[in-house]
Amino acid sequence: MLLGRGQLDPYPDPDPGATAPNPENDAGGPYYGRLVSLAPGDVVVIPAGTAHMNVEMTDDYRFVGVYPVGSPKWKSERCDNRDIMSQLRDEISQVPMPIADPVQGEGGLLITLWSKVDQ
């Protein structure tokens, strides 16, 4: 697995590809989808091609990203240009299945779940 670390920059505007705002959001939205609060030690697994954004963070917030070996380089793509959607879908399909579950290792549940979706 490849490893990346860093700090996220929040996007000030909602994703133009999203379909509906979340009316339950009280964090200064409108943001699209679900608002999830995280705490130190939490693990979030985001499948390839899944839209996500950082709405709010503290100055000491950091993340660790793990990507399967052979994956295309990650990119921050807001999909403002709809003409590239087909190309992005092709790139997403090139992300290989990880050899092991990124959280639980060999025999972990995520590989089993992702394998069923891939069939």
TrEMBL record:
Gene3D superfamilies: Jelly Rolls. InterPro entries: RmlC-like_jellyroll, RmlC_Cupin_sf, YjiB-like. Residues 1-32 are annotated as: Disordered. This is Cupin type-1 domain-containing protein. It comes from Pestalotiopsis fici (strain W106-1 / CGMCC3.15140).
